[in-house]
Write a structure and sequence with these properties.
Strand 1 and strand 2 form a beta hairpin. The chain has a 3-stranded mixed sheet with strand order 1-2-3, covered by helices on one side. By secondary structure, the protein is of the alpha+beta class. The protein has 3 helices and 3 strands; from the N terminus they run H-E-E-H-E-H. It is elongated and about 45 Å long.
Length: about 110
């Protein structure tokens, strides 16, 4: 990451990192599954950044939720200048198949 990278540059890298996170039960990344509802990058006074992520799971009772949240946190916090990733699990609105990318729906046969 070049010095002086903008918040938009950082946000782009964060989204790339999110695409390396996978639901443990479905071999498709969480972005294409439509699990990420919001991703905001905030610059701190010391020029570091905090990332706020709101996401869901394919099913509220998924036992892998905390594992997935930690994976997201770990992968986002390795982005240069990001010192904190706050990941919040939401279940409203509930996830459904229409939130998936077209490619993900094709790969899973959920068209």
């Amino acid at each position: 990451m070049p010095p002086g990278a903008s918040d938009d540059d950082i946000k782009s890298v964060v989204w790339q990192q999110l695409k390396t996170c996978y639901d443990p039960e479905i071999p498709i990344n969480i972005v294409d599954l439509g699990l990420v509802y919001k991703c905001d990058v905030q610059k701190n006074a010391d020029e570091t950044r905090t990332v706020e992520i709101k996401m869901t799971l394919t099913a509220p009772g998924c036992g892998m939720g905390e594992v997935l949240v930690q994976d997201v946190r770990d992968k986002v916090e390795i982005v240069p200048t990001v010192t904190k990733a706050n990941v919040e699990l939401l279940f409203d609105p509930p996830w459904n198949q229409t939130m998936m990318s077209e490619e993900a729906r094709l790969r899973t046969g959920m068209m």
